[in-house]
Structures are given as structure tokens and as C-alpha cells.
Amino acid sequence: MGTTTKLVNLALQGGGAHGAFTWGVLDRLLEDERMAFEGICATSAGAMNAAVMAYGLTIGGREGAKLTLATFWRRISDAAGWGPLQPSLLDRLMQTGSIEKSPAFIFFDMMTRLLSPYQFNPLNYNPLRDVLEKTIDFERLRRENVVKLFLCATNVRTGKVKIFDNDELTISAVLASGCLPLLFQAIEIDGEAYWDGGYMGNPAIFPLVYGCQSTDIIVIHINPIVRETVPRAASDILNRLNEISFNSSLMREMRAIAFANKLVNRGALRDEIKTMLIHAIEAESFMKDLGVASKYNADWDFLTHLRDVGRACAEEWLAANFRHLGARSTIDIHARYL
């Protein structure tokens, strides 16, 4: 790492197919050799992006990470292409990325409300397992990983957050982080059952605070924090409930960081804790216009559109904020999270 290289940590949110936005952000950040990555804490689709990126960095450096991410998302789209959840002609004409007009999605949505995954998917088939197996050699990743990984899941029994670190990286850990309880049977690891990490940390920040030296944390947001209108449709209400739920733990941690930073700046904590510098890459206005059904849309054109939006947002962020890394936060933590 060069003398001018800035070491940062990444915090990656989950959000289904919207994780392709994060792919685009990472793709652009990987091209900037002024920046290196110490730790990544991630949840759900973010956890998949994190594991794939870390594996790519491990086997082929920055170009390897870019290629592995692109391969992973291509395989996601190819796997989905064999399934029934496809955009209808009307969905494509509307160009919103949604599949809510698809008869298959309407039926699928109804089934998940009436039946549990133990009933409608008794064999527990998960196409993501096949994609991850083809993309990542987890044994090699555990042995040679060049990035500190922290993947978040929710312990079904205790309700506590579980952080899978480098030594615990398995395909089951990644799937546990993205296990939506209405879609998939709980992932069992060492006698414990896990659901999506978004319920308790989307993503958690504390592993980066305590497990890494870098004080810069770049949060890549997928889920909108603020919506100006009150949802009326049932699907919109459920989507907003999920957004609030999946953002709540992040907002609580940011409040704690803001309070700790204030004490450090006043000299009250001295060397007991470091000042954390928080940054955010997002496309909130763009994400607000995407319906909840678009999170299930793995059509290649939609995924690459999200990637391109992510790249553009990262480009804009780098131009405006790179120089502030290591010096100050580039978002107002109080205004955004308190």
C-alpha cells in the first residue's frame, strides 16, 4: 500500500436485486488505487457482494474482484432466467424495474403470505447456493482472505445479531445473512438457526469500530431512510415497514457513534475510543422510485442499470469527498440519523 493510499472500511446494506447498485459502487471504488480496504461489514445481498469482492481480491487483486463481482451477478441473472419471476410486457414498458404486473409474481406474493417456506418449498431449494458454490472457493477464502469480513445474521432463537468473521466464512454463513424468513427456511449452523441479518444489523457497524484500525467507514445505502409520502397500498406499507425495520439498527449505532465522537472531541474519553469518520454513498431519490417487487427482478438489463447508477454515484462521491477521508465525516450524522 502506497504512502498516499487511504485505508477505509465498507458497510454494505442488503436489498435483494437492488444489491446490484452496490456492485456498481464497488466496481468504481476498486478502480481507484488511492483507496484500500481493511474491513467490510455486510448483510444479505451486501454480504454476498462482500464475500465475492473479498474472494476476487484474494485470487486476483482489484481486477480479480471486478471480474468476480461481474461473474456473480451474471450468474444470478442467468439462474433467475430459468424461473417464473420475469418482468411482464407491461412491466418492461413502464421501465420501473418492477415485476409487480407479472402473474407469476402475483401468485408468488400470495403464496408467501399464506404458506411458510417449510410448506411451499419443503426441499429447501435455494438457487443462490448454486451460484455461490460456482463463484467462491470458501476454503481458499478462509485460508488466504486479504480483507476482514464481518457478515451479519439474526439468531432466530435469541434475537441477537450474529457476526460471522473470516474464520467462520462458509456458504451457509452467507446464505444465513440473506435468509428472508418468508422465502427460505432458516439456515442452521452449529445447532443454531439464522434469518436475514437486516433485522438486527443492516449492516452492523460495531465490528468495524472494534475490529479495524481505519476510522473511515463508507456506508453504501440501498434502503431509503426518508419517504415524503405515506404509503397507501398494502405492498407499499409492507415495504416501508421493512425499510424502517432494516434501517433501525444502523440508525441506533450511528446515534451511539455521534455521542461517542462528541465525548472524544470534548476530551472526556481520551484514548479509550477513537473518533469515527462516517461517509455515505447512495441514490436515495432513485431508490425511492423502485417498487418492492423490483427487489426480486434479476433481469440482466435491470441489474446492469442498477450497476451503472451505482458507478455514477461512486464517481460523484469520489470527486467530492475523497480528499476528506482521514480528516472528517462527509455526512452530518445528526441530521441524517438522529
Could you please describe the fold and organization of this structure?
The structure is a single chain. With 338 residues, this protein is α/β, with parallel strands linked by helices. It has 13 helices and 8 strands. Strands 1, 2, 3, 4, 5, 6, 7 and 8 form an 8-stranded mixed beta sheet that branches. The chain is globular, with a radius of gyration of 19 Å. The mean pLDDT is 90.
Short synopsis of the structure:
This protein is of the alpha/beta class.
Number of helices: 13
Spatial gap, N to C terminus:
36 Å
Biggest sheet record: 8 strands, mixed
Unreliable stretches: none
- Estimated structural class: alpha/beta
Overall body shape: globular
The percent range for strand residues is 5-15%
- One letter per element, helices H and strands E, the order comes to EHEHHHHHHEEHEEHEHEHHH
Number of strands: 8
Cα gyration radius (Å): 19 Å
State the helicity in percent bands.
Answer: 40-55%
> What's the overall average pLDDT, rounded?
90
Topology:
Elements: E1 6-12, H1 19-30, E2 35-43, H2 45-81, H3 89-94, H4 103-114, H5 117-120, H6 127-135, H7 138-144, E3 148-155, E4 161-164, H8 171-177, E5 187-189, E6 192-196, H9 206-211, E7 216-220, H10 234-266, E8 277-281, H11 284-288, H12 300-321, H13 333-337
Parallel strand pairs: 1-2, 1-7, 2-3, 7-8
Antiparallel strand pairs: 3-4, 3-6, 5-6
